[in-house]
């Protein structure tokens, strides 16, 4: 048995998994042949240290890349499955933080609430766009917290897309752990500090891109992200991932410069996307250009 199969045998499906599968089946069936479909994964996976989880190891990601990219895919006419870490950054809502919202409201003469006129011009276009997308049912929100939740939902989504809409796009921006503690080696209850310093041994997570590309979704267009902190390693690692998994695109980024520069690595060529100083000052988001490039490649492929 392959290591990834053992992983799924040893780690049970998340709560509500069947309901998520029903939503996925409906969404894919509804949009197949009408809109191009993209799966966008976003946010970091957690690795619990205890079954009744008090402590966990986290992967770095706020979810900004995935949330912003989702808005740009929707603008390009895609229907989007947004598989994201619970409480991470979410499309549309990301523009409105709670303190801004509370400070933007006033009581009207009927005792109801209304937006202060000076804030309407900022909120209205976001609200209008969100309402339109939701009325077209073009955005499906699915959430995960742990690595295991994520992998179960990733596999299910990939398989439904392969079955119902095989020309779809996967845009894997979530930050996925390489290490974990198998269920049967995990403490049941909160680990006690009375027994002294803690030594934890984490096992390697099988690289799921391998079965994803070759078995679960062989006809899908897969773009994965590669995160490094050492600029010397980035291109080598991104190129290596492309050769190893044989998918279509690796988008390499450095933790330090991820908001302003990425490198798109494809089989024939690699290509840097970088924001100018002026674009940065004007608040242009790099995701706009990444998504345009990815959509261009996806269109050529289909
Ligand atoms: O969310 P933000 O704060 O905006 O940050 C965005 C980002 C930096 C997180 C994003 O741009 C990014 O780089 N995401 C990928 C991070 C990551 O997991 O990189 P990696 O080098 O660890 O993994 C590379 C690929 O292998 C990923 O596509 C991952 O899905 C895959 N993988 C990883 C672990 C694993 N066990 N199996 C896998 O298949």
Automatic annotation (TrEMBL):
<protein>
    <recommendedName>
        <fullName>DNA/pantothenate metabolism flavoprotein C-terminal domain-containing protein</fullName>
    </recommendedName>
</protein>
<feature type="domain" description="DNA/pantothenate metabolism flavoprotein C-terminal">
    <location>
        <begin position="161"/>
        <end position="270"/>
    </location>
</feature>
<dbReference type="InterPro" id="IPR035929">
    <property type="entry name" value="CoaB-like_sf"/>
</dbReference>
<comment type="similarity">
    <text>Belongs to the PPC synthetase family.</text>
</comment>
<dbReference type="Pfam" id="PF04127">
    <property type="entry name" value="DFP"/>
</dbReference>
<dbReference type="GO" id="GO:0015937">
    <property type="term" value="P:coenzyme A biosynthetic process"/>
</dbReference>
<dbReference type="GO" id="GO:0003824">
    <property type="term" value="F:catalytic activity"/>
</dbReference>
<dbReference type="InterPro" id="IPR007085">
    <property type="entry name" value="DNA/pantothenate-metab_flavo_C"/>
</dbReference>
């Amino acid at each position: 048995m392959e290591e990834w199969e053992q992983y799924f045998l040893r780690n049970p499906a998340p709560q509500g998994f069947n309901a998520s599968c029903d939503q996925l089946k409906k969404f894919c069936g509804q949009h197949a042949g009408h809109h191009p479909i993209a799966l966008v994964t976003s946010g970091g996976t957690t690795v619990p240290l205890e079954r009744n989880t008090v402590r966990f190891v986290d992967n770095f990601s706020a979810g900004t890349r995935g949330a912003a990219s989702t808005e740009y895919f929707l603008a390009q006419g895609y229907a989007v499955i947004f598989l994201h870490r619970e409480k991470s950054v979410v499309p549309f809502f990301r523009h409105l933080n709670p303190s801004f919202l509370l400070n933007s409201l006033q009581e009207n003469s009927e005792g109801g609430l209304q937006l202060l006129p000076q804030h309407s011009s900022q909120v209205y276009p976001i609200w209008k766009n969100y309402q339109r997308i939701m009325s077209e049912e073009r955005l499906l929100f699915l959430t995960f917290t742990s690595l295991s939740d994520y992998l179960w939902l990733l596999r299910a989504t990939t398989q439904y897309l392969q079955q119902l809409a095989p020309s779809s796009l996967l845009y894997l921006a979530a930050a996925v752990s390489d290490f974990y503690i198998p269920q049967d080696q995990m403490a049941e209850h909160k680990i006690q500090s009375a027994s002294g310093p803690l030594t934890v041994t984490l096992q390697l997570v099988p690289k799921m891109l391998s079965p994803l590309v070759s078995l679960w979704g062989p006809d899908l267009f897969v773009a994965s992200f590669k995160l490094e902190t050492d600029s010397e390693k980035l291109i080598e690692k991104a190129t290596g991932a492309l050769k190893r998994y044989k998918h279509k695109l690796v988008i390499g980024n450095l933790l330090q410069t991820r908001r302003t520069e990425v490198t798109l690595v494809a089989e024939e060529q690699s290509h840097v996307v970088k924001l100018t100083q002026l674009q940065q000052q004007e608040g242009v988001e790099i995701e706009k250009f990444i998504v345009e490039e990815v959509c261009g490649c996806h269109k050529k492929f289909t």
